[in-house]
Amino acid sequence: MNAFTNWLQRRGPQLDERQLERLGRLPDASPLSEGPLVGERLVVIDLETSGFDLRRDQVLSIGAVVIEGNSIDLTQQFECTLRCAEHQPGASTLIHGLSPSAIAAGEEPAEALLDFMEFLGDSPLLAFHAGFDRAMLARALRQHLGYRLQHVFLDVAELAPLLCPQAHLPHAGLDNWTHYFGLQVEQRHHASADALATAEIALILFSRARRQGLDSLAALDRRLNTWRHRQHAPSL
What we know:
The chain is an alpha/beta fold. It is about 45% helix and about 15% strand. Helix 5 packs across helix 6. The longest helix has 21 residues, at about 190-210. This is DNA polymerase III PolC-type. InterPro entries: Ribonucl_H, RNaseH-like_sf, RNaseH_sf.
C-alpha cells in the first residue's frame, strides 16, 4: 500500500485494500481538447437522486452513455443503483420511480462509484443541467471514496440555447429540447434513458457547432464562457 492510500485510509472513508488499489489506478482527468469533436470520447451522465438538496440528498442511480466517433456507442453504457440504507421515500420517488426495495438491493456505494469512475476514465462529461449532477457526483465521490472529482463537465442545457438561439428557449428543460428537435423519447426520469436523450441532443448540437466554426471542446467552452458573461451582464 503506497503513501497516498495509507493517508486515505487514515483520513477518508474506510476502504479495503482492493478498493484502494482500484482508486489509485484511476487516470487523471484530461483537459478539454483543441482536437476535432469527431475524435472525442465523451461520457454523457444522468443521476437520479433522493431530492435536490446538494448538502443532504444522495445519489440513488447513475446512467451513462458514450459519444465517440460522432455517434452514440451503445456498446459502452453504464447503469447502476446505489444502496442507500437510510433512504426514505419522498416526492422524488414519484419522479424517478426507484422503489425502496430496489435501492436497498443496490450496489454498495464505494463499489458502484469505482465502477463508474473506471468506465469514465479520463473523458470529459456532458450532462443536462450539469452543475447539479457535478455537485452531487463530487459529493458522493468525496463521501464514499475520499476522491476529488476533477473531470470537466459541459452543460447541454447551456450549449442548446447558445448554438440554437432561434429556438427562443433560454431556460428550457430536457423535454423542451427533445420536442424542439423532434426526438422520440420513450422513457423519462430514468437515469439511462435521460442520458441517452441528452446524448442525442448533444450530437445535434455538435453538428450545429461545426457549422458555426466550433469544432473542438475547448472552442465550445470558450464560446460558452463568453455567452455566460453576456447573459449575466447588466442591461444598459
